[in-house]
């Protein structure tokens, strides 16, 4: 369940009662998130982060990540999500002084525990019992309050929130080698590397001598094989992480590629 509390989706309650929910996200805007119950695994190209009850984080825009949300301790996954739109951030910073004196680093921020966060989010659950949309003036106040709290708790937050630049053209091969496990559209891969779809496909062919889809499938299967054979992990635990949407499809293409099912790797190792 995903409930909006305003028509512009700037405040939302996410509630997952099923076994899990997986989504690959490249956010158009920054998201300020508080975990109320359950747990979420965040997979990026160079790290995995697990956040649980009481965790507060800022997810920057234009960053590739896989989010796996699931219930825990008999409670559903539940979170409050605030969206900081670029339009509102530009308006905010036009009225608040700031100075960027070092290079911007757009990374997922797991924010430290703080009483200001606790007090701020305590009021939110009651908002979701209200049937009507929240008044726009209240939304604006809550967004600005969140900004003030964030800037008070994290003195470096401006380096992320006040940077309005768009992705520039970057090294495609290096980017794809780091991010092949994310199940994005070709258009989105192109955007994140600073290219149109046509230019992305052309440059990809030049770099890898293959089509994007064929190369992505091959890389994901190779990573899956490594996890299963060298890390002693189970198919059910890794197919989402390596970029497949369901276990049966993963098993089918794995067997087609290697000649045996992913569940047979341990038996083959014993025989050898």
Task: Describe the 3D structure.
This protein has 272 residues and is an alpha+beta fold. It folds into 2 domains: 2-161, Regulatory protein AraC (Jelly Rolls); 172-271, Arc Repressor Mutant, subunit A. It contains 12 helices and 10 strands. The strands form 2 sheets. Strands 1-2-9-4-7-10 form a 6-stranded antiparallel β-sheet. Strand 1 (2-4) and strand 2 (11-16) form a beta hairpin. Helix 7 (186-192) crosses helix 8 (197-208). The longest helix is centred in the C-terminal third of the chain and has 19 residues, at 212-230. The radius of gyration is 21 Å and the shape is globular. It starts with a strand and ends with a helix.
**What gyration radius follows from the Cα positions, in whole Å?**
21 Å
Largest sheet: 6 strands, antiparallel
Q: Give the overall shape, derived from the CA principal axes.
A: globular
Q: What integer is the average pLDDT? A: 87
Number of helices: 12
Residues in helices, as a percent range: 40-55%
The CATH class assignment of the largest domain is Mainly Beta
Our estimate of the beta-strand percent is 15-25%
CATH superfamily of the largest domain: Regulatory protein AraC
Enumerate the spans where pLDDT stays under 50 for 5 or more consecutive residues.
none
Stated plainly, the CATH topology of the largest domain is called: Jelly Rolls
Helical/strand content category = alpha+beta
Keywords: DNA-binding, Transcription, Transcription regulation
Organism: Pedobacter metabolipauper
Protein name: AraC-like DNA-binding protein
GO molecular function: DNA-binding transcription factor activity; sequence-specific DNA binding
């Amino acid at each position: 369940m995903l409930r909006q509390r305003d028509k512009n989706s700037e405040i939302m309650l996410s509630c997952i009662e099923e076994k899990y929910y997986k989504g690959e996200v490249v956010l158009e805007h920054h998201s300020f998130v508080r975990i109320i119950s359950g747990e979420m695994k965040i997979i990026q190209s160079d790290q995995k982060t697990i956040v649980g009850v009481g965790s507060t984080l800022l997810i920057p825009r234009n960053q590739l990540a896989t989010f796996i949300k699931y219930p825990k301790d008999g409670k559903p996954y539940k979170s409050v999500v605030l969206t900081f739109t670029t339009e509102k951030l530009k308006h905010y910073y036009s009225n608040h002084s700031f100075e960027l004196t070092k290079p911007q680093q757009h990374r997922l921020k797991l924010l430290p525990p703080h009483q200001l966060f606790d007090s701020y989010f305590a009021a939110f659950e009651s908002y979701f019992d209200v049937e009507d949309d929240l008044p726009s003036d209240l939304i604006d106040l809550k967004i600005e309050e969140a900004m003030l709290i964030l800037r008070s708790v994290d003195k470096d937050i401006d380096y992320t929130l006040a940077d309005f630049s768009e992705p520039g053209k970057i090294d495609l091969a290096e980017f794809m080698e780091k991010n092949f496990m994310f199940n994005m559209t070709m258009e989105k891969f192109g955007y994140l590397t600073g290219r149109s779809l046509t230019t992305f496909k052309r440059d990809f062919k030049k770099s890898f001598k293959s089509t994007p889809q064929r190369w992505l499938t091959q890389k994901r299967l190779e990573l899956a094989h490594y996890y299963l054979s060298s890390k002693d992990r189970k198919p059910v635990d890794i197919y989402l992480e390596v970029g497949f949407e369901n276990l049966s499809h993963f098993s089918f293409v794995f067997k087609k590629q290697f000649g045996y099912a992913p569940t047979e790797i341990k038996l083959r190792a014993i025989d050898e």
